[in-house]
Amino acid sequence: MAGNQxxxxxxxxxxxxxxxxxxxxxxxxxxxxxxxxxxxxVTEGFERIREAGEALTVELELANxxxxxxxxxxxxxxxxxxxxxLFRAADYRPVVEGPVADExxxxxxxxxxxxxxxxxxxxAERSGGDRLHSAVRYGVSQALLDAAAQTRGVTxxxxxxxxxxxxxxxxxxxxFGQSGDDRQTNAEKMLLKRVGVLPHGLFNSVEKVGxxxxxxxxxxxxxxxxxxxxxxxxxxxxxxxxxxxxxxVDVYGILGEVFGPPYDRREVVEYFERLAEAAAPYPxxxxxxxxxxxxxxxxxxxxxxxxxxxxxxxxxxxxxDEWCNTLDDVRAFVDAGAADxxxxxxxxxxxxxxxxxxxxxxxxxxxxxxxxxxxxxxATSARACAHVALATDAAQILAKPGMGFDEGYxxxxxxxxxxxxxxxxxxxxxxxAPETAVPTGDSDD
Length: 445
Hints:
Blueprint: E1 6-21, H1 23-27, E2 32-33, E3 36-37, E4 50-62, E5 67-73, H2 89-104, H3 112-120, H4 134-152, H5 156-164, E6 175-176, H6 185-192, E7 197-200, H7 206-209, H8 214-231, E8 246-250, H9 254-259, H10 266-279, E9 284-287, H11 295-311, E10 316-320, H12 327-336, E11 341-344, H13 346-349, H14 352-361, E12 368-371, H15 379-392, E13 396-398, H16 406-426
Parallel strand pairs: 6-13, 7-8, 8-9, 9-10, 10-11, 11-12, 12-13
Antiparallel strand pairs: 1-4, 2-3, 4-5
Helix pairs in contact: 3-4, 4-5, 5-15, 6-8, 8-10, 11-12, 12-14, 14-15, 15-16
């Protein structure tokens, strides 16, 4: 609307959907005691190894009386793998209501790209880097996206698509469910709901993977069999007999601790071949096989393993996560051919427009983009990311926040269905019939 302006910027401390964990302490053997961990934290900023997650709601007050919102949130493993430090809402509330507010007051909320870029380039405040903490940029950009969509009278999908020059997807993107430690029960829930990609698994310690990787093999064997039973067996819906999900497990660099470099030797390749056999007939992708301690090292080791698997014709795709945090990181991994899939870890990239740019950077390459994030986000940020996935036609999107699966899957799926239906109505085409099956995860689109 002509003459509309941002007249107020407010920040409200909030809670996130999960917890912040000191990943370095956990990898060094911190013992889990119930839901907490025993021992002292080793990553700067942590007071305990597991702490309650925090968020910061950003409200943009517009001259026409409407309110646009976004949530600042950071990843579960803050301060690890080159990421920004632990996010505390109280530290960054004055930043949002100070320099960020000064930048945005009086500006036209319809100008999403301009305003998001201006916030992205504000000088650092308490983040220890060149820019504002990634969580601040993330939350403010969500609020700007909401404000632009309201002002323009379009969906957030349309705003993002205009910003990056894409044609949005016409159907919901395959959703990737995450199980947490309850990896069997939650996987069964995913199968019953026909989730496209599953189950994440949370294999973040040698104990969970197995001293020789045997526990991961056993789990994939179980998962394949259970998928046969619940996905294509007697319980399969008559109208979705061809459900064939993609398996995706995150090992947090632990396979690097089990085997160690070099990753093109026979022992390692044969282990990945056994993983593929355990998952068969379902396609498999493994996230973060090792953690090399630096971006350059990670790219080199991931590329070495990927080339070795390709040479041996082992059908396991590798997903970049550790040291693939920023837009520049994503570009570096893609350019080096160091992964089959890159996770675009939305809170780490800062402004949500940068996540969209990261996904589109994969177009025309043999690398797929997974619009990820963290269990430690909020409903607001998850819904915003659903529009980024639709606008860029990402390969998959994470069900978030939380580790209970059902809630995050509901939030992301329903937001995509609403957005696609609204765009269909606006374009004059009949709305699609309610889905009876979630798209399968074995497409390379």
